[in-house]
Specification:
The chain is built from six helices and no strands. It is 76% helix and 0% strand.
């Protein structure tokens, strides 16, 4: 299998990091704070989805067909990544929590959801970089 292009994922992580830094430097409740928090939440969503998309490509060699990989749920995808030594158990637990948080956006786009997401971001950035490196380098 050829190299997996992680350029877009890297840009997503960079945007997420920048949004997080700007958020931390903004006054809570200000328009800037709201703008950076919105950017952070959207960057979180895109980074999460991109990570899953690229992880599917990474685990493809462990499966009989692309169809079998495409049928995996997000959570099963990450469980299989652990099974094949790509992620450790604690990383998988965190990724499943990130996904649960993301799924909440379908029901709650309010401040409470955004604030919960902000609390996850420091670990999420670290985990996103780790998964990017795992996908790119093995």
């Amino acid at each position: 299998m050829g190299e997996i292009n992680t350029e877009f994922l890297t840009k997503c992580i960079d945007t997420l990091e920048r949004s997080y830094q700007c958020l931390k430097n903004s006054e809570n409740g200000s328009i800037d704070y709201e703008m950076y928090r919105n950017s952070l939440v959207k960057s979180f969503e895109i980074t999460l989805e991109q990570s899953g998309k690229l992880l599917k490509k990474k685990i493809l060699p462990f499966f009989a067909s692309k169809k079998a990989v495409d049928q995996l749920t997000f959570k099963d995808l990450f469980r299989n990544a652990h099974k094949h030594g790509l992620l450790d158990e604690n990383e998988v637990i965190r990724w499943l929590a990130y996904r649960d948080n993301r799924n909440d956006t379908a029901h709650d786009y309010g401040q409470e959801f955004a604030d919960r997401t902000v609390l996850l971001i420091a670990d999420f950035i670290t985990d996103s970089k780790r998964i990017r490196d795992t996908i790119a380098n093995g």
